[in-house]
TrEMBL record:
Gene3D superfamilies: MFS general substrate transporter like domains (1.20.1250.20). InterPro entries: MFS, MFS_dom, MFS_trans_sf, MFS_Vesicular_Transporter, Tet-R_TetA/multi-R_MdtG-like. Residues 236-273 are annotated as: Disordered. Keywords: Membrane, Transmembrane, Transmembrane helix, Transport. Residues 29-481 form the Major facilitator superfamily (MFS) profile domain. It is found in: Membrane. Pfam families: MFS_1 (PF07690). It comes from Trametes cubensis. Residues 258-270 have a biased composition (Basic and acidic residues). This is Major facilitator superfamily (MFS) profile domain-containing protein. GO terms for cellular component: membrane.
Amino acid sequence: MSLSTAQVQRPPTERRPWGLEWRSSVWFITLVVGIAITTDLLIYSIIVPVIPFRLQNLGYDGVSGLVGWLLFAYSAALVIFTPPIAFLSEKYKNRKIPLLLGQAALIGSQVMLMEAPTFWVMALARVAQGISACVIWVVGLALICDTVPEKIVGKQLGLAMMGMSLGFLIGPPVAGALDKRFGFRGPFIFGIIVTAIELIGRLLIIERKEAIRWDASFTNLVGRNDPSKERVAYGAVQGEKRPEETETPTRVPSHTQARAETERQPKDEPAEPAQLSIPRLLFKLVRSPRALSAVFLTLSYGIMISSLEPVLPLYLQSTYGFDVSKVGLIYIAAVVPSFISSPLSGWYADRGGTIVSTVVCLVGSLPFWCLLVIRSHLAYFITMFALLNLFATGSISPITAEFAMVTRSLEGVGCETLTDGHVYGAFNVAYGLGSAIGPVIGGQLYDHVTPNRGWLELCLFNAALVVVSTLVTLCWFGETAVIKRAVQYFRRRTSAKSEVDEGTA
């Protein structure tokens, strides 16, 4: 249906909210979501250099394994609670309330983690943090898509996603410095203060559907989830009309039968396509080789990145004698390169395709996983670690782009059956599974393999995973996989040669 004048009527007794224009504007919504992502990653990363030493002080053994389980608790909650949060957000079309509840959960989890006397309380606090994280990653990104016009939604999402790198850049160094100056509680008090300040931004948000009640001009800022907007097939030019859309522009048929059904609909009541749940969407993805490759690469990326988190502080302590403050500084080498590689690989993926960009990043990271096992001067380690992250973090942009493209290209899973909450929820589940498995693998390898060789085993494991991911990319990734193109080229050459030979004979 379309937004009529009656739908934007407001109750005569209500007063116009102050700051309506800027509180519902594109720039403010993007800013709030970007800061929320920064806060989420800051809170997530702030414990990485601190918790291993805290567990040692509490008298626990096998610390890297325990840290791995704490990170697992966070990611497991992310996976488990993403489907219901995405479903409820889309069903009730409300973004602000889930964002506020998620922030409350984040503050409470930090207090629990700061005062936790035992490991199981820490694990419970990490579950609460995971619930808060899936709110911002599903609801927050969907809020941007609700607010932002289609033609600039990619740009605004890119700006908001810069919060990932910023959060990881700030978290570990600040945690190390505060822990050294004020003790264990210092980083958590800082996190609580940042979270409380960020809560103000979430309280100020006015969703576009509410802004329309006061000013009909807000209907001009059509987001991707608005029922009044013209649906555009993935890859089509914005504003381009197809013949079948002249009567029912909100329907994007995927084949002849769908077009016929659309034309039979009453002109004033276009059909409402059934939306897929996240489990059904994932089930459809794993049945397609191209989609399965995108899911696998998302999963493997989460494993590789998160497997180092419970191990790196302990490795730096045993190899270079680092304390908490120095461990935090090393993470700068992991984050700064991502400010270059992620935008660059995403830019090239838009122009040269996701396959080339992904393969370059994967192959580029492979030698540095191997070189990282060499114990040498600290400057050598920092250089190898920075170059590794330059390529490893660059792979997520083309993988994310491919994930979005393949979900919209599958038969029966086009734009008309997906909402932004469902798309980001599905990606969240795939990445969350990887980041749940990775810390457990890293912690167990570091603690239980041959003494003093856990770091070697972990780096070689990740190198092997890069090799498998590269093969998956070459065999199934993209609209036409590299191996399939090579086979087609070989067949054409063979056929052409046969024709030449026959002509000569």
